[in-house]
Amino acid sequence: MRSIRYVSITIIMALCAAPASAVTWYVHPGGAGDALTIQGGVNLAASGDIVLVASGTYTGAGNVNVNFGGKAIAVTSESGAYFTVIDCQNTAQGFIFENGETSSSVLDGFTIRNGSGVKGGAIYCDEVSVTIRHNILINNYASTSGGAIHAKKGAALIYNNTLDGNNSPVGGGISFQGPSSPQVYQNIICNSAAGGAFSCAGSFGGLVACNDVYANTGGNTICAGGNGTNFSLDPLFCGIPGSGNFFLQQTSPCAPAFSPCAQPIGALDVQCQVTATSPVSWGKVKNLYR
């Protein structure tokens, strides 16, 4: 009996020590989920959990200035950045990371637009190493630095994002304040209204590689020391400027088949083809309908 008792106690202790399974918390503004707002979903989550956000446009309290609170969670969209929009309405930032978040804190698959802040119009990072991927950051503004993203110190992992039309006096796209060692790769950073693509203040020991840095007012300069295969070519989006359609044309230099590093660049993939055309007279067009 003694041996059986010891075995039972050992099994119970092992079960108690086993980590709990990750939980997925569903955010749906219509009430069909666990939370009505993104911050509400974050508040429910524990480290290791996933906050899954339904498609739609999110505004107002609980959907802007979202703070992970140091949790190692993934906040991700259910249907991707094109269908999941956070509109800050020029009054707030999208996400604020300031509680020691690591690369296990993940922001994945959102459009963040019309953000406004002193530093980091869409996303502000202060001494953290978060993962920011597959997001579209458009028309965000920072009055000091980092039109879309500002990262002070830390080692943020920023990849496969599309930044378009952001604005700041310094670093219209992204600003880094050192010492910092981020990994920034396979992003499209284009059409910044001011401040250039990047700003790097202080010691910079990170990697900036395989980014398309194009048509940024103030310049397309890469951070010193950010060695990698970066280039400056029209990304050839499917939509016209202002449409919000940042899918890529088939022959885009950001498509894997044509990019210098043979990798997908930006938040969205190829969704439209280039159609060959030839001259035709108006008479031939009318004949088609006779």
Structural write-up:
By secondary structure, the protein is mainly beta. It has one domain (20-274). The chain is 10% helix and 29% strand. It contains three helices and 25 strands. The strands form five sheets. The protein has an eight-stranded parallel beta sheet, covered by helices on one side. Strand 1, helix 2 and strand 2 form a beta-alpha-beta unit. The longest helix has 16 residues, at 2-17. The radius of gyration is 22 Å and the shape is globular. The relative contact order is 0.08. Residues 1-19 and 275-290 have low confidence and may be disordered.
A few lines on this structure:
With 290 residues, the chain is mainly β.
Task: Describe the SSE topology.
Elements: H1 2-17, E1 24-27, H2 38-44, E2 50-53, E3 56-58, E4 66-67, E5 74-77, E6 84-87, E7 95-97, E8 106-108, E9 111-113, E10 116-119, E11 123-126, E12 131-133, E13 136-138, E14 141-145, E15 149-152, E16 157-159, E17 162-164, E18 174-177, E19 183-185, E20 188-190, E21 198-201, E22 207-209, E23 212-214, E24 248-249, E25 270-272, H3 282-287
Parallel strand pairs: 1-2, 2-5, 3-6, 4-7, 5-8, 6-9, 7-11, 8-12, 9-13, 10-14, 11-15, 12-16, 13-17, 15-18, 16-19, 17-20, 18-21, 19-22, 20-23, 24-25
